Amino acid sequence: xxxxxxxxxxxxxxxxxxxxxxxxxxxxxxxxxxxxxxxxxxxxxxxxxxxxxxxxxxxxxxxxxxxxxxxxxxxxxxxxxxxxxxxxxxxxxxxxxxxxxxxxxxxxxxxxxxxxxxxxxxxxxxxxxxxxxxxxxxxxxxxxxxxxxxxxxxxxxxxxxxxxxxxxxxxxxxxxxxxxxxxxxxxxxxxxxxxxxxxxxxxxxxxxxxxxxxxxxxxxxxxxxxxxxxxxxxxxxxxxxxxxxxxxxxxxxxxxxxxxxxxxxxxxxxxxxxxxxxxxxxxxxxxxxxxxxxxxxxxxxxxxxxxxxxxxxxxxxxxxxxxxxxxxxxxxxxxxxxxxxxxx
Length: 344
Known about the structure:
InterPro entries: G_IRG_dom (IPR030385), Immunity-related_GTPase-like (IPR007743), IRG (IPR051515), P-loop_NTPase (IPR027417). By secondary structure, this protein is mainly alpha-helical. The chain has two domains: 21-176, P-loop containing nucleotide triphosphate hydrolases (Rossmann fold); 183-338.
């Protein structure tokens, strides 16, 4: 999401968040991110802070500082810990500090080895300073994640993402896995596992409807499940228009360049009833199933059992195949996004 894009938090030198502000995830609007007021301000003392921001409604907290953490930050973390919720210290805009360090050391930015060595030294200094800073404020075993303002794949952001996922319960973990950005092939593997679980559940729903002995009911339900799940798969793997545009802006490449490597997955606008019907018509398995099912739908019990099994098989097979193709395309998009920009 861009700084000044629709739905983005207001940037500014002065404190802009005076009340808890809700923001929807750009692709999954049911997932909410809350920007909370800065603790320690004149309006929000540490003592009253948690009550004012309605503490109980949030799943976890990220305490962000672009410089040193304060005593108020650690007091907040202590209260969060007492209430048995997770929190994460994040040191942001690390790239700015790295650039400052390079300049202070007179590093030649055209010398790749020297540049990378200076980056490692700067990160070590920032990490130690953040650790010592929090220890001095009373944190017994502080854990700090260093992140870039511009490139989410750098420094500790992938580790932060992985840590947050691991420390949630199963339901929240699956939701997070689906909506967090793809930064590595491991991200794709996790998303695939989450989607395989969803496909199984949706195939079972299809099976339960197929047990109802009403002609054509199962078919209409199957198509609805297929359309909605295929669109969801596209969004989860960042293959929808909105996600591709966000990625293109983040990596500084034309969106058409990213789209050029997508071979198997259609745009979400093309995934319609007609699209699914076309796939079904070209499926030999579905053709054979349909002929038998249309006859058995009029035979009680036997027709219901066959209908349930055939609905499960059709839904599972088509969605699994669609998922495999989406995974291949997502890996290609990730590789294309990671390619160095061509020099003009």
